[in-house]
Amino acid sequence: MMPFKLSVLLLVLAVVTALVTAQRRRPASRTNDEWNYRDGADRVNMRGVANLTQVLDDWRFDILTQMKGLLQNDHQSLLPEYSRIQPLSEALDDLYKEFNALKERLGDLTEKFTAIEAFIDEVKASRSTNNNNGPAPAPAPGPASGPNQRPGGRRVLRKKTTTST
């Protein structure tokens, strides 16, 4: 029995040695471990590729539909509960307060610009009617009198041009 085991062991050792030497004699492949996508392209089953593409597209549609449904109907199962994360919860609260303050400020500015736009439209309309009607009418008497008086009580000062001869 022992000589049989020894002969099997020697046979296995000889086969392994032959495989190792054959592997060393094989010429090294000259690829850079890059996949050659053109190799075997003529043997591709286009029907199988189309079927695989259809299956993947169906999976994508199903996954996106389920995610959309979960986000619309049961978003708490997907998103974390932010109130448990105290610093994040405070940051979100501060951000919400700042956003509301900015909305209020934007509303105030919109009201102010509406008044300014109305005033500018009136000035443009009066200028266009003055230009169409000829010389400007005399200014209405105001609280402060002066030759170059503007609305709001401001004077327009113009430099006197001096001619030197």
Can you walk me through this structure?
The protein is mainly alpha-helical and 165 residues long. Among the domains are: 46-79; 82-132. 61% of the residues lie in helices and 0% in strands. The protein contains three helices and no strands. The chain has helices at residues 2-25, 46-73, 86-133. The longest helix has 48 residues, at 86-133. The radius of gyration is 44 Å and the shape is elongated. This is Si:ch211-76l23.4. Residues 126-165 are annotated as: Disordered. Residues 1-22 form the signal peptide. Keywords: Signal.
Write the layout of secondary structure elements.
Layout: H1 2-25, H2 46-73, H3 86-133
What descriptive keywords fit this protein?
Si:ch211-76l23.4; 61% helix; mainly alpha
Largest sheet: none
Q: How many strands in all?
A: 0
Q: What is the beta-strand fraction?
A: under 5%
H/E element sequence: HHH
Mean pLDDT over the residues = 77
Uncertain ranges: none
| Number of alpha- plus pi-helical segments | 3
Distance between the termini: 139 Å
Quaternary state reads single chain
Q: What would you call the shape?
A: elongated
Q: What would you report as the Rg, rounded to the nearest angstrom?
A: 44 Å
Helical/strand content category? mainly alpha
The level of helicity is 55-70%
Organism: Fundulus heteroclitus
Region (Disordered): 126-165
Biased composition (Basic residues): 152-165
Keywords: Signal
